[in-house]
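note to self: dont lose this again. the chain is below, predicted strucutre after it. 463 aa total, dont forget to put it in the shared folder this time
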Amino acid sequence: MNLRAATVRRKPVADLVAESDHGTLKRSLGLGQLTMLSIGATLGSGIFVVLGEAVPVAGPAVVVSFVLAGITALFSALSYAELAGMIPLSGSSYSYAYATLGELVAWVCGWCLILEYGVSVASVAVGWGQYLNELLRLAFGFAIPDALSQPPGSGGIVNVPAIVVVVLAMLLLLSGAKESARANAVMVAVKIVTLVLFCAIAFTAVKARNFTPFLPLGLAGMSAGAAKLFFSYIGFDAASTAGEEAKNPQRDLPRAILLSLGIVTVLYCLVAVAAVGALPWQQFDGQEAALSHVLSVVSGNPFWAGLLAVGAIVAISSVVLTVLYGQTRILFAMSRDGLVPPSLSKVDPKSGSPRINTLVVSGFVAVLAAFIPLGKLADATSIGTLFAFLLVNIAVLLLRRRQPDRPRSFRVPLSPVTPLLGVLCCGYMMFSLDGATWVVFGAWMAVGLLIYFGYGIRRSRLA
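---
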């Protein structure tokens, strides 16, 4: 076999579009549901879980860290919007890479997406358990023992609550995409109301002195905070994984991606200002359920902190559901291309969902959530996501050059400047992450390449 020819073979855009038109998944999602899908996958993971880790790194400048991470996400979101309208497939950036950069790079991108989606679900599932314990402490005066609510390395043996929320999301996904979208819409409404309530209470306690000095840890701390908080924006691309289940993908996918990112960024910045303005940044160190802690201190009434914990539990459940959905659809596309076993692309005729795929992914995520600490998960997710986003920006540049006349329902403004800025921002934030994260990423890539050269390269449909 000619390895070089095999690894650079590309899937024509026309073939990808034909697959989306004749797919086995049911088209049942409109603009509202697609937007809620992206908001559900994004809103909650960072603001409820990772904020408590980012504030000690950046200080009050964490507000700017959110903006910096949001701008980085915006460049990539514009590229996603163009490609999602042009190639409306479940494979998201994996499929875009297949059409532009060749099979090997597509595999690497898909392998990064498995890291991004699978590990981010596990990470926020860990956060779900933290807020559940916070609620139990406030309401009943007890909590699940660390042995059963923390992973090894964080004082526990197994994280049972994290397993529970993953299993509940799995059961919803097995019922079908439309049913899952309805449940997600309700959960998204609850979490938006919860965050607005938090802002209304916390802003009453905001003090100007809590913002000085604004950069106690310097520009390096602000950049490190942005790299850590980029995890908070993972999920805006979830709508692109629903390309084969959208009723009007060319029109609705670009709108859903950009609309969801805008809503999430505004909410994140408001909550960050309220949180660090109401409480000195030094007091965030070691706080797992950070927003509940802020309300406990500010209001002096455990009722509000308990109410926020309920909202956080619902919010994080929504993230688990929608990101798990995205992971199953990407694996579905990779399976259909022959790069992973064909059983993962079999669709249940009754529910219209890939049943075996959903069970396998949920099992993988549950194990990660049960046994791996949150911080390591979040950083590993960020680097995989940044790499995938970098490839999406490159794909826009290549398709603009190779197929300038192909119809596009949305076009990235100021191209090629905007996609190039996306490449540079993603690269900069990748190098802001610590060496240990790069070691994990390198090991993950090595395993992925072994699987591709041992299995996928010969079983690919293009072979």
